[in-house]
Amino acid sequence: MSIYQSIQDFIYLAIKNGTIESIDEIYWRNKLLQFLGLNDWQTVNEEGKEQDSLQLMDQLLSFAKKHDLYDSTDEEAMESALMDFITPRPSQINQTFWNKYQDSPDKATQYFYQLAKEVNQVKTRDIARNIAYKHNTKYGPLEITINLSKPEKDPKKIAAAKSAETTNYPACQLCIENEGYYGHANHPARSNHRIIKCELNGEKWGFQYSPYAYYNEHSILLNEIHQPMVINQRAFENLLAFLDKFPHYMIGSNADLPIVGGSILTHDHYQAGRHEFPMAKAGIREEIELKHFPTIQAGIVNWPMSVLRLVSTDRTELIRAATAVLKKWKTYSDVSLGIKAVTDDGILHHTITPIARIRDGKYEMDLVLRDNNTSKEFPDGIFHPHKKLHHIKKENIGLIEVMGLAILPPRLKTELREVEKYLLDEPNQMNKIHLEWANELKENQDFNSDNIEEKVRGAVGDIFLEVLEDAGVFKNDAEGASGFAHFIAFLND
């Protein structure tokens, strides 16, 4: 296919998406010619031959790179800027979204999500590189992902990032100002990035899809104001207000403290999507009574972490109950279990990771109790993956992991292959950080070429289960059950 046919087909996509109208075709063609370093035109077929936007992107970028219009340091920005040619303006997308919303919230999100994939805002090909599988446990299947979606920077990009001018615009990667931002060495390209503007509880928010999605329709709800995350009554109100607008999605928030929180605590945001996480499928281990909220159905979730599930049709009462649990947890200590709400220096250490959904016509909110204390024995966090697990997972256990989806580092793709070779007594270059674990596996299991991958994946799943158990404040044993019962009694004082 000639470059001119690719350009013409790309223009057809822009018309189909509503980015331009037919009357704009020549104007848009000339803009693309300039972008690709061309100053002439050859007649092509009127009907498009290629309708796959990513295939067209590859063809056009290949031409541009062949003619030295960019190098690897600018590849992401060029890709994003090219796809911006077929991405409608924010005003167009917002108008179409809310028009479709009048029919149903589902139709609105389907439109926006499909468009985000077509214009490569959601990077489907990169996401498809992830290694993903399920691992059965006594709590039900956990979901394991080795995250390979984010491309590793080559040496030229790393060098460019070091020499790039420091700027505070946008203030972070979640700021509303990312929409349409070209990007630079230290900030991702967002030319084709779009945000749906919405209002929750009188505040302005933006709704977008995550470029490197970890689960189906992984979306982010971000405050238009760059301000820190806070878990409080307002947060619970926002979660349920979002569900009122988009009842087919779940939504949750990272905790608002270091160690137990997410990677970005400086910008108020939540994460949503169309995915039933393992924790949502987990049943209730023990029903409990909240004396001050008799209409609330409550229980302890059968989960490796410490989770209270509150259920009600009464939105206001559910928010009141969740707020009461949070306030009580912020002051609760049990030194015998290493649980300490406030240390001698006056620092608060307790918060909650909340997750909300609508099920069977009722609001359902899971409240995961978090504690970010450290100790001499556990300097990285008492309720954090302990050191013996760091060869697999040492990063923060945020919202997504809490719900039973492991996001494991990309290094494991090659490292686990070497572990497999070691277990089969083949020549290998296994990282020494895996030696103790690998020797334990050798002692307790038999490996051969037919079962090696499955068994190693299962062993990684077992470690993720231990990670979640480490993060649980009340362990699932007799001592932990007694401690949880004491906290429930404290709630009912």
Task: Describe the overall structure.
It is built from 16 helices and 13 strands. The longest helix has 20 residues. It has a domain of 116 residues. The strands form two sheets. A ten-stranded antiparallel β-sheet has the order 3-4-5-7-6-11-12-10-9-8. It has 493 residues and is an alpha+beta fold. Keywords: Carbohydrate metabolism, Cytoplasm, Galactose metabolism, Nucleotidyltransferase, Transferase.
Write a concise keyword list for the protein shown above:
493 residues; alpha+beta; ten-stranded antiparallel beta sheet; 13 strands; globular; carbohydrate metabolism; EC 2.7.7.12
Write the layout of secondary structure elements.
Blueprint: H1 3-16, H2 25-35, H3 53-66, H4 75-83, H5 90-103, H6 105-118, H7 124-127, E1 131-135, E2 142-146, H8 155-163, E3 196-200, E4 203-209, E5 219-223, H9 233-245, E6 250-252, E7 269-273, H10 278-281, E8 284-288, E9 297-301, E10 307-312, H11 315-331, E11 350-359, E12 362-371, H12 399-402, E13 405-408, H13 412-423, H14 435-444, H15 452-471, H16 478-491
Helix pairs in contact: 1-2, 1-3, 3-4, 5-6, 9-11
